[in-house]
């Protein structure tokens, strides 16, 4: 069902949905940015349309709603353990096409890459997506090149037009809005300012010896911000927290990790792999445009450009792809 309605009618519909769903969308958090006087845009629970920020790209992806940065999995004592409970509320997330496509990648890792991840699945099953149409590309986006600028995987879609909203409702459970019937197509980006070409025949051994990685040894500072803002990065570490009151009682947590930071590849015996920053960036880049594609048949990177937006050293992933492409062509 496709409708046209004003903000007031939309907010009334959101109020009805909030009785059953927790609603998440990007919001502006004043004075929470990189510098003291800058804002941060990230996903938080909202109640009405004016709380949402769609004119700017969110600094963090909505991934953290389904895959918390710090998640308690279980509590334990010396003799037994109990599973951490998850709240029963359903979740509705307002997302761009690239981020919905990114969820498909995360699902691939946690649900179809061997045994299903129980903890991820129980959260994932509660989530529905509202696709937010994109009329224009944001800076550093290259979603068109990655075929992630469109999607049909949504419960509801939203176009924003000045003082009116256009919604396409697929899920009958979300049919709570009053509006005028109107035919329209959901907006999607047709062209980005940035275009990339991924080599079709990548030789990973040859690429590992490319001189571009030496450049990143000097530039990368191993902060891991590119991983933490990426909607398709899925690495984590496990932490056992012991309570001060009783060292035999505690909790096990799953915490986001980064393949770019020191210590990520440490193993028993004091050994470690990929100690240089260039090797770490090579590992990430090849996973995004080669390894994942070889296993699942499509690219991992969705071209959202957040890694470029947030890198303090101005390392551009799209430029990295271009350099890999140039190196591969030179070897032909």
TrEMBL record:
Keywords: Iron, Iron-sulfur, Metal-binding. It comes from the Bacteria. Pfam families: Fer4_22. Residues 209-241, 292-320 form the 4Fe-4S ferredoxin-type domain. NCBIfam families: sulfite_red_A. This is Anaerobic sulfite reductase subunit AsrA. It comes from Intestinibacter bartlettii. The gene is asrA.
